């Protein structure tokens, strides 16, 4: 199974970007998908995730109200709409997926990872 992320780029503060991630291969076992990010010099952190087991979503406090995660269960695709972007949102964003039944914010609960896509928020 592979995850392919896209949609990063450079945007001014207050602007918007939309990230997308699609799974390929044996995707039928994927139950949850989400996004993590890693800023320069910092640890990778949770951003948002959704589960098709129960249909709920989770957000980091730092992005709640600004970011929206959505997905397509049949295609195992997930998108992250990012509005009101701030310079502190600058990071490499990683798509992740999990084939287990534990839905969480913890990196260790995700067993599939895509390549990162750079998001830069700068004037």
Describe the model.
The protein has 123 residues and is mainly beta. The chain has no helices and 11 strands. Strands 2, 4, 5, 6, 9, 10 and 11 form a 7-stranded mixed beta sheet that branches. Strands 1-3-8-7 form a 4-stranded antiparallel beta sheet, with no helix packed on it. It is globular. The N and C termini lie far apart (38 Å). The mean pLDDT is 95.
Topology at a glance:
Blueprint: E1 2-6, E2 9-11, E3 17-24, E4 32-38, E5 45-51, E6 57-59, E7 67-72, E8 77-82, E9 91-98, E10 112-113, E11 117-121
Parallel strand pairs: 2-11
Antiparallel strand pairs: 1-3, 3-8, 4-5, 4-9, 5-6, 7-8, 9-10, 9-11
Structural class label: mainly beta
Using the alpha-carbon principal axes, give the shape: globular
N-to-C order of helices and strands: EEEEEEEEEEE
What is the number of beta strands? 11
Mean pLDDT reading: 95
Largest beta-sheet details:
7 strands, mixed
User: Rounded to an integer, what's the Rg over CA atoms?
Assistant: 13 Å
In short:
This protein has 123 residues and is an all-beta fold. It has no helices and eleven strands.
